[in-house]
């Protein structure tokens, strides 16, 4: 949102949120904040009226049925509010053989949009680099990365870079409206040994690579409520499905994405 505020001004933006109190900063910046509930079509219709381009960010639920229902509600509300342009913020786990819990959802939405009559673009994020920052103390204590992906590489993007790409798509009609599909990644993907080496250079602490099994990974993080889902995601990584590297970010923004080393140094 901060990118869009800089590009078009706060008075041109509306943030549709589930909990308005959490958007106080946006309100203070002059952005119109309205309540929207993906499971309540009436709130969506009211939130979407007089909208030129809708940026749709899925909820965090791991319920496939709820995610699909939320998206179908959004399409219904868009039609009622006479909005026909949408940017879907997706994830690159959409391959037909991808075992990630939500893979079918990410495969479904682009196909649904293709048949919807909407003008749209889909921007698929690679793995967010940002969770690595709060994860570093645990990795330093363990002395190793433990992702169960073997010798397969995975690509990342920072949330700041993702937000910049979304903002550019929202304001540049030539980049959207024709069913364009983008995957935003850093300029290289990383095997875990190489990622550990970068972390060593940033932290000065030894971080090697000693992968656990997928089952063990799920058990380790079960208490956080998404152990099984994360394990399923890294099973996809172990199949080599997350090593995608593209120049889409540069195509959208005109410059290269921030490198992993630069990102970790800036945030750590």
UniProtKB/TrEMBL annotation:
Q: Where is the NAD(P)-binding domain?
A: 12-97
State one molecular function term (GO): isomerase activity
**Keywords assigned by UniProt, alphabetized:** Isomerase
| Pfam family membership, one | NAD_binding_10
Name the InterPro entries on file: NAD(P)-bd_dom, NAD(P)-bd_dom_sf, NmrA-type_oxidoreductase
Would you tell me the protein name for this molecule?
3-beta hydroxysteroid dehydrogenase isomerase
The protein's organism comes out as Paucilactobacillus suebicus DSM 5007 = KCTC 3549
């Amino acid at each position: 949102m901060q990118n869009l505020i800089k590009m078009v001004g706060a008075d041109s933006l509306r943030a549709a949120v589930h909990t308005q109190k959490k958007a106080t900063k946006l309100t203070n910046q002059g952005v119109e904040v309205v309540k929207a509930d993906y499971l309540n079509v009436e709130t969506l219709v009211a939130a979407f009226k007089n909208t030129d381009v809708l940026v749709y960010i899925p909820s965090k639920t791991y319920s496939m049925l709820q995610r699909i229902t939320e998206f179908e509600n959004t399409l219904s509300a868009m039609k009622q509010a006479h909005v026909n342009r949408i940017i879907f913020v997706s994830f690159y786990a959409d391959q037909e053989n991808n075992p990630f819990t939500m893979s079918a959802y990410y495969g479904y939405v682009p196909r649904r949009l293709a048949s919807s009559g909407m003008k749209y673009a889909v921007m698929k994020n690679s793995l967010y680099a940002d969770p690595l920052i709060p994860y570093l103390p645990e990795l330093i204590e363990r002395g190793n990365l433990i992702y169960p992906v073997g010798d397969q590489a995975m690509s990342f993007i920072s949330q700041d870079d993702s937000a910049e790409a979304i903002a550019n798509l929202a304001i540049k009609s030539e980049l959207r409206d024709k069913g364009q599909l983008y995957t935003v990644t850093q300029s290289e993907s990383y095997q875990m040994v190489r990622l550990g080496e970068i972390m060593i250079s940033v932290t000065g602490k030894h971080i090697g690579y000693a992968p656990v099994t997928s089952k063990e990974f799920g058990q380790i993080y079960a208490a956080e409520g998404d152990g099984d889902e994360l394990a399923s995601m890294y099973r996809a990584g172990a199949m080599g499905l997350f090593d995608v590297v593209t120049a889409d970010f540069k195509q959208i923004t005109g410059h290269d994405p921030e490198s992993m080393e630069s990102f970790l140094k800036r945030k750590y």
